[in-house]
Amino acid sequence: MSRNLDLSNNIPGLYRLLDLCKDDRSNGRFDKIIISTESLKKLCNDLLPDSFRSISNINYSKLNHIKLKLIGCYGNHVLIAKLLLKNNIIDEQIYNCLTYLDSSEADQCKPTLRPGIYLLKVNIDLCLVIHWPELGCYEENAPYKKKNMVNLHRYLTKLTEHQICLINENDLECFVWNFKEDLDEETKPKNNLNGFVDAYKLVFELSCLSFLDLILENMNNKLSDLKKSQLGEWIIQLSILIPIQIALTRNNTFHPLCNGSLLDDAEFADSEVLSIYGISQKISFGWYEGIFKYFRDRPIKVVSRIGEQSYGKSYMLNHLIGTRFDDSAIHYSGVWMSLAITKKCIFVVLNFEELKSFERSPQEDLFLIMFSTMTSNLILFENRFTVDSDMFQRFQASVTLLNDKKVFQAKLCIIIPKQDNDKIVPEFSPRFKTMLLQTLDEQDAKYENAQTFLQIIKVQMTKLMICDWGPLDESLVQIRVSTLKRLFDIAISLGIEENQNKIEHLTNHDTGDIISDQVINLTEIYDGIMDVCDLILDSELNLLDESTDFVLLSTDLRFYFENKIQSRRNSSNDTIWFENLSKFFKLIVQRRINREQEWFHQNTSKFSSDNSIVKDGRLILDQLITRLSLLWTLCGLSCQTCSLKCLKNSHHKDVHDCLTDHNCYASCEFVDSHTNKLFPRCILRAGHDGKHTCNSKRHICGELCKFSNKYNCQKKCAKEIGHNDVEHICQSKRHNCGAPCSLQANTKKGFYKCPNKCIIPYENDHEQHCCENDSACPIQCPIPDCQRRCQSTDHFHALQPQQIHFCGNEHQCQENCQELGVCRVLTEPRKQKVAYQGLMQGTSITFTEYIQLSERIKCCKKIPPNAFQHEGNHSHDEGGFHYCDTKCQFCKYICILPYGHTQSLHDTKHGNMIQTEFTSEDNEFEFEGHKLRAGDHGTFVLCNLYCCEFGRHRHMDYCQDASTCKPSANKHHINVSIEPHPEKPKEYISHSLFWERTGFKDPYTTQEQEIFKKCDHECADEMHRPTRGSNIIPNRSFCELPLFHAPLKLSDAPPNGIGYISPGGHHFKCDNPAKREGSFHIIFVINRSGSMNCNDKKPLPYTPVYDLLKTNHDNRIGAVYSAVYTFMEVRLAMKARSQFQPTNKDTISFVLFDHEVIVPFENHVLTDSKSMLNQMLPHRARGGTNFNLAIQAAGRLINSYFDPTRINVVIFLSDSECRTPRDQLEQICKYNNDRGNPLYLITVLFAGENDSLSLKEMAEIADQHNPANSMGNTLRCQFFNAMNEIHLVDTFTRVAESLRNHNILLMKKI
Asked: Domain named VWFA: which ranges (predicted)?
């Protein structure tokens, strides 16, 4: 709605709180309710400026100082408008707009007020919370409006204790009082639990006051006992009414959200953002983010609900915890969060998208289960034991994958749907709520406070996103130290933290407590200070700034010292004053150091002090502390201009400067010359020797001193006026030589030359010039990064032969660890999402590729004083843990066992299968919605979750020795050539052999491994297949025998007399589908053109009809005849085992075509395969190809022998291309559909090198006319590519058995 048409902007003091928003996912049944962010921001900032900066940064504490009486108001919109008009809140013009839309003449262009909940500020204390209704919400024929009305009214009663109901007689007549019966199935309670509210009932309060007496200004007196609400906590209650989405799964990836939106890919261009720390910092929980920070000290308990579709959904959470999941009318995809706040703790409630949805893969389900188990105190798991026991295996798989006992502490509460167990539920229900609440109450909070919860859950979400299966503690310490290291510079410099450009105090990131910045009174540390004065707080001082010169950096502190503690100008002894200033600086610096060390200690105390990451962080902090200490060490040598002490940094390289005006401010000491008792200021340089003398009268000779060219000469003769000798001498006690100091030497860090001047009296003979700094060697320690000076007290230490200028301290070794193995393993996403371009045109798969990086950690040893290196090898943890450096050959993840481990198999957590490529019996196939081809890379598939996608399965590998490759219990040789690298022989292998060959431990659970051992053939009965348009997942039936078992005889009885034996020799425990098998009219349409005479493909030897075919048909057409014979034999075998409908027999028609058509037999009942074969044998390959004539012949046969009890199946085979007979095929399909008997067309390309577009198109045309689920998935229109005679026989057998689906496989690259 345009701002100009929104009346909320024209009503003073009116703020929209909750808004209705159209939600297409509800199919028009209701709208979703959202918080009106901009309006709520305006409310907060109008009442308290700058209190609302963003949805995650609201100053609830300050808003709590505003207390309001809140009264709800709902009912007829005309009466509400009259109430506002009567109380002079709106004028007649706005009233007319508000009441104009009470008829069908509503004008969309006229200003109006949207339905929702509003806050109206009546006066400084009183506010109305108004539920402005939708038109017709009380009418019986507006169910979705009633749903919206009830949801908003529920929120109104949550936000206010008292409500005014304004409703007229017409509304009362239209209102459906028995509202529970009017609820839709989705919101009806699923169980009748004792103590639970079955449905919300509206209660209308009838006031004794007449409408005319309802003056809002006077209601304060009538409601004097009404409790005022703190605005901050009231907004919190408003915010938690609406659940927020925090994560979703997509493309086999777990995606955390930032304020309900996917993380921006562009942000991942920054290398720092790629780390666990960087990603976790980007996650935000919207409104809840600020709420957690407000309640940062309150413990957190997490309850999650997870289960399958249509199992009560959010009903239990709403009544157990008090959340409002279904009220918000949101489609719950991914993970949603709501809060229930109590005085003891906060309940965080996670509502998960239904598992086993057709829209998600098993891998995505596993991510949801893992997130639930790793975050929760209590898991409400809704499951049907009899149907879905494999869901428990997924829980176990998640625990196995992470293998972190500290993470998995949740209690699992299994909810049995009433429809599954009518006997248990009635007895169980009355005690259910009490039991759950008691369980929750007895459990310790999983998170000691909200601050810790925010940190941990974001790290857990990040680890799932990047598939980092390492221990949580390892990630937490890495993130914590990374956080501290990022803050080191500003913490050392300013004594504060900076978070997202916001200045904050040094804080314990676990508890939220501020590191003490103690107020120190100067009288406590200095004597002689009369006035009470506090020392500047540490957090108010800048002590380190690379861009600022030390002189400027120290100016404020120097002035503070002179003003508050001791003035330099008034000091009689500059040496003592300098020592006091140095002590003051050391006090300031040591206070900063103590706070930084305490800050680091508090934030790492929960981790082991020996942890290499913590030690690395402490080392960096120590280096910064050393820099800080050295920076604030003063020079103390004589100023170049006067005799005061230099106040520059001890390592400065320019001239010495006392940082004064260099003037002496003492009074003249020639007191007898000043009879007026006024003593002028001394004119000499500060710190001079001798008496102070002024310039007002001539007290001394004043002639130029004969040593005026010397470094420390006072220039003027200090002898009496008119002295007899001719030598003019100043008051300086000695005149220094002034030549450059003799110290200069080559050192490990370069050439050094002392910048000072010689202070030896000029009259003393000397060969070596010595400066004022004669008690210390000024050359830096030769250890890299050490800034300390040499420990020697001999200034000329460097002039002695082969001297090394060690500082005398220990040094941290800076070399990398050299132990065998891998020090640290890091899992990170690449800098940008990868777009894999498939071999099929148009296939592009965008995904985030995660990589493992092996990292060498710095050596943990200390270099002893006066040495360049320590003893022994460099090691980050001598004798400690180093990872094995072996990598998985598929994903390149590193073994997590110690280097040199004794286990026979390596172990790792696995990642993207970057070293694999797809293969399949079909050259082209679909995988997870992507069209792929053999040879496509498996980069976007996760190594340790891949097998879960398929359940029972086989793997494919290259034969290790093709000459000796024999079938066994774990492998089966493949006799045909398969892409990729068709020239290399391949074999099927079992799951266990697959992992045995990798040298790595099987990452799947014991239960999964047992399943993987079994045969992957599935019963073809349509009752086991999901039907289109239905969410019901039927029971699947698999062969009960081992994977590569010998086929059972069809004539044998099934093992233990249970189930049946399929024509392929597999044993199934389900009912034989042949019992319900219908009959078919099967029409073979076979191309017998000249190309079918090629002998590159021949009938298979060792078959019953080989001898019949090899004489005249040892070619392609003979291979086809052999395959047709096998097809008929399979159909006969299936009919023979049928115990029902034995009279229902298939009929076969056989069409041969080239440029003409011939039909050897029509609609023959299938009783004798060999006799039918004999009718084919006279016909040899010849001529051209005409698909039009062929499909017309098939249509004629269907018409001639149409039987509504038989299903028409056309198997159309060709080895070459021809124009698609679109018109003829469309006509035949429509004709059959009109008769209620759809046509099933199966097209087969035989011996073709490339795919046949026309045959594919024919199958697609027929499939478009095929009604959904008429035959389930056992028989459908489709195209096959049979590359050779073996494939052809297999194809026909599969059609006869109504198909068996082969899994798509991944092989390692070569």
From this structure: 1081-1310
Q: Residue 380: which of 403, 422, 409, 351 has the closest Cα? A: 351
CA distance 1183 to 1190: 14
Cα separation, 1240 vs 1242, in Å, equals 7
Beta strands 300-307; 378-382: pairing state: parallel
Cβ neighbours for 601, distance < 8 A, ≥ 6 positions apart:
none
The Cα 746–Cα 61 span in angstroms is 63
Q: For residue 343, what is the enclosing H or E element?
A: none
Buried b (16+ CB within 10 A) or exposed e, 665-692: ebebebeeebeeeebeebebbbbbeeeb
Terminal-residue alpha carbon distance, the chain: 61
Q: Per residue, what are the HEC states of 96-148?
A: HHHHHCCCCCCCCCCCECCCEEEEEECCCCEEEEEEECCCCCCCCCCHHHHHH
Strands 1157-1165 and 1147-1153: antiparallel
Query: How distant, in Å, are the alpha carbons of 853, 1057, 1246, 1293 from that of 1134?
Result: 57, 18, 26, 12
Alpha-carbon span 183 to 1212, nearest angstrom: 54
What span, in angstroms and rounded, lies between the C-alpha atoms of 530 and 1045?
100
Residue entry with tokens 């290398």: 271
In the structure encoding, which two tokens stand for residue 537, read together?
């707080």
CB atoms near residue 711 (< 10 Å): 17
User: Is residue 285 within 8 Å of 291, Cβ to Cβ?
Assistant: no
Quick one: tokens of 484? 């501290």
Closest C-alpha among 377, 412, 22, 274 to residue 828: 274
Among 613, 683, 1008, 974, which Cα is nearest to 824's? 613
Query: How far, in Å, are 28, 661, 1035, 1276, 1298 from residue 1272 at the CA level?
Result: 31, 100, 14, 8, 10
Alpha helices in 48-91 (DSSP H): 60-63, 77-86
Which amino acid does the sequence have at 145? K
What is the reported pLDDT for 433?
A: 56
Q: What are phi and psi of 314, to 5 degrees?
A: -95, 0
CB contact at 8 A, 127 and 119? yes
Say which amino acid occupies 411. Answer: K
Strand partners, 338: 349
Q: How far apart are CA 1155 and CA 1183, in angstroms?
A: 6
Q: H/E element holding 25?
A: none
Q: Block means of pLDDT (10 residues each) for the chain, length 1310 residues?
A: 70 91 59 88 94 91 93 87 87 86 53 89 89 75 70 86 79 51 39 29 39 62 77 93 89 85 61 70 90 91 79 56 53 81 90 74 81 87 59 66 70 65 49 61 82 91 83 84 90 84 82 85 72 82 90 93 89 90 92 94 89 88 92 92 91 90 89 81 87 81 85 83 85 86 90 90 89 88 89 90 90 90 76 64 70 84 92 85 90 89 89 82 70 79 77 87 78 81 87 91 86 86 66 76 86 84 82 68 94 90 88 92 88 63 73 94 91 93 92 94 84 91 91 81 83 89 69 65 76 61 60
Q: Which two tokens stand for residue 1075?
A: 């019992």
pTM for the predicted model, two decimal places: 0.67
Q: Which residues pair with 411 in a beta bridge?
A: 378
Residues 6+ apart with CB under 8 A from 489: 544, 624
User: Are 1207 and 1201 a contacting pair, CB within 8 Å?
Assistant: no
- ∠ Cα 1136 1139 1145 (to 5°): 50
What is the DSSP code (8-state) at residue 4? G
Pick from 1194, 1150, 1185, 1155: nearest CA to 1171:
1150
